[in-house]
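Cross-posted from the bioinformatics board.
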Amino acid sequence: EAQLVESGGGLVQPGGSLRLSCEASGFTFSNHAMRWVRQAPGKGLEWVSTISSNGGITYYADSVKGRFTISRDISKNTLDLQMNSLRAEDTAVYYCARDATTVTTNYYYAMDVWGQGTTVTVSS
Amino acid sequence: DIQMTQSPSTLSASVGDRVTITCRASQSISSWLAWYQQKPGKAPKLLIYKASTLKSGVPSRFSGSGSGTEFTLTISSLQPDDFATYYCQQIRAFGQGTKVEIK
């Protein structure tokens, strides 16, 4: 069974840094693009970043561009999100999610496997 | 950037009701639309992709339709397990969500 497990969340002061990790299991990690999606308390879902299956292409929401960096280690089946210059508005539950599309089946950017989320709180 | 607008924001319904949620895109997105269900404290679950294709294992009372800029998610007969918040999603943007609550 495909599974994603996030870690690394916590309390950090404004301007600080945090690194989130997501460990993948139960599927061929290198076959799928991966994403980070966040949800502020009581709010809706917000796409944060995407990385291609081989890690060569990355995309970022304007709200995090220049501050966050997505990366992946295919040898370790891990996805990371380095978050710098954190702001109060970055406070959220952060989910990693698998893009369902593979080379054989197009799921049109849908995300079919999600982690349980890790909570990031930016506060002094 | 393409904006996604869902309506209504909240919907009150009873078990057995037919429920329809609308999602509009600010420009054409062909059929590049997915629908998710999220319950409090849980991660979202994929229901539908490519606007109208039901993910394997999702009950057939859920259906999706539309293309271009206007899409709908329909629950044909609302069940107790369906009370949740629903989101539409195109490539890099989500709608603001529709909470389906008990009437």
